[in-house]
Amino acid sequence: MRIAVLYKDHRFEEFDASTLTAGDPYRSQGKNILTDWILHLDNVTENGVVLVQHWYNANPNSNARVTLNGLTIPVATRTPGYAILLVAVEELDNLVWLTKDGEKVLWREGNELINGERFFAMEQLYYSDAGTKSINQRAITLFNYLKNAYPERSDEDIATDIGYTLTAIHHIEDSELAQADDNDLYTDPDETTED
Q: Cβ neighbours of residue 128 under 8 Å, at least 6 residues apart?
């Protein structure tokens, strides 16, 4: 993960989490087989921008196991690493934007900081226009397509096939219908209209 920060005073910082400065910083504590990075943008006004590192310890003496398809496999346990303060609370007023892997995830609108991660997640799920279909609209379109293609299958099975629950599909239908100008996409295949 690469994080870049631009400040109003033209200072530019870049952090690269893809490589560790020390090749194996946890050697004395165990065997690190995976490093997990969490960028916290959830409470920047109190904590600043914090990057948290966890690592997964492949301790051969651990009793943690998981059984997958009949095979019992040892589990590498998640171990807390360090919290790294990338942008201190005192620096927030000077922040212009912050990018993660080239995408803006935090920026200033007037005097306010905008959480781009939340914005883009909500945009992908809910926003649609003539050239863009939201994830929710695509899910409903796919659900209705499969429902028409396989009328013998239950709605619950079709929802499961596309990675949703039927409850989630109904929630999306209700939300989308409340916004829709053209209900043709949402017509139940069991309903018929008379001309």
A: 134, 137, 179
